[in-house]
Amino acid sequence: MAQAVKESKEEKFSSDRVLDLYANLTMEIWEIVSALIGEAILSFLFALAIRKIGEKYPFLNSLKVSEEGISSDEVRKDCRKMAPLEIHRGFQSLINQLSHLFSALTEGVINKELFPKVLPKVREADRMISQK
Amino acid sequence: MRLIFKNLNILRSIINAISTGMASEVKGIVESAGSSLLNLFDFSVFGVLWKEGPVLHLFQEESCPPSLTQEVVKNMIRVFSTLEEKPIEIERVTLQVEKRRLRPNQMMMDPQATLKSYLTLPLAVEGEIIGCISINSDQPNAFDAQDLQFFSVIGYQMAATLKHFQRFSSVKKEAIYDTLTSLFNRRYFEEKLVVDAQKAFHSSSNLSIIMVDIDHFKKVNDTFGHAGGDKVLHEIASLLKNSVRRQDDTVARYGGEEFVLVLPGVPLEATSTIAERIRQSVANTAIDIGQSQIHLTISLGISNFPIHRAKSKEELVKMADLALYEAKRGGRNRVCIFGSGQG
Hints:
The complex is a heterodimer of chains A (132) and B (343). With 132 residues, chain A is mainly α.
């Protein structure tokens, strides 16, 4: 019983950590890309990507996107019950989809600005998941 | 720093060019924006794809090879389809190309040039995509992050301007079209008739009017209800619309089950032929209402300037109306010319 409680706590802790990491990451993406293309276009692209990836990872549909920015507060409630790997995969797919959209629109111009800052954090999430 | 100020000034003038072009056509806005963009970017083709239509306006270097133009068209449609999450068939897109000398003679484009780099941005307003905007080059890596920043500002202005256009054209549409039949409404008919009559009376050219009324329409409403009646009005309106091809001709719903056609420059004999063709077309068409199929007929009255010597547009309309009355009185399903008793 005590063991089960401990595992559950670890899981929660880990899910929170993965989510924190991705919440910061999406905010960072927002900061970088909105400076290039503006908030209205970016919120449109985020909404598009969430709609697409949200089909496979429904928890992403709770991400709130507006011209003011992106908020993960609602996602946090859902994610507490989810496996960290699932959260990681969902956000990773979302970032890939965004990157695909940025590339379709501007070839490498956005991704060139984005990748150096974003990739290390995705790797960090990978490491976190594999350690677990 | 000086360069940034210079670019910001150029940007301001581009935005001004886009927003002051509001009163004219989209084509005009694209042209003035395209001309100003030259001061900011080195590009081969500037494109604006507007969802309404859809229409793709291209403003491009005169020496741009057609193959590159096609690449740009395909690429813009591909990107827009991705953004809209549904494919657009290239055949559906109306292409409007404006060619200009954007480069000095000695820098004419290679006829084999291909699309090497581009920036495309959605025209997004209030979460809705109304089109996309794109600059394209035959040079690799022609655009950088700063270009993208400037181009996005242009995109925002273009989106706001096109949205304004969209709203304006929607209001305009509501003001001149009959919502049930999609034909012009009576108000538009009267306004257009003023112009057509002025032209005809001034130059003694032909102006013909055909008044049309559906025979025994009340029975349709009584038998099939108002939904059935609406279906009939819609179907007959389509037949009337397809019976005239010239842009200058007007087909309008006059009121109830009555329609009117205004044919500037069409002599009486040709008008009579058109009216007879319409009559036959309606008589030969089976209209589906629910599980039933019905055949209906129409009566038509014709008047013509100068043959009938109308002194005013009102008199010309009244003459067509009297001829229609004659057609009804003569047994319906017929064409009557004013003054001749029967067709």
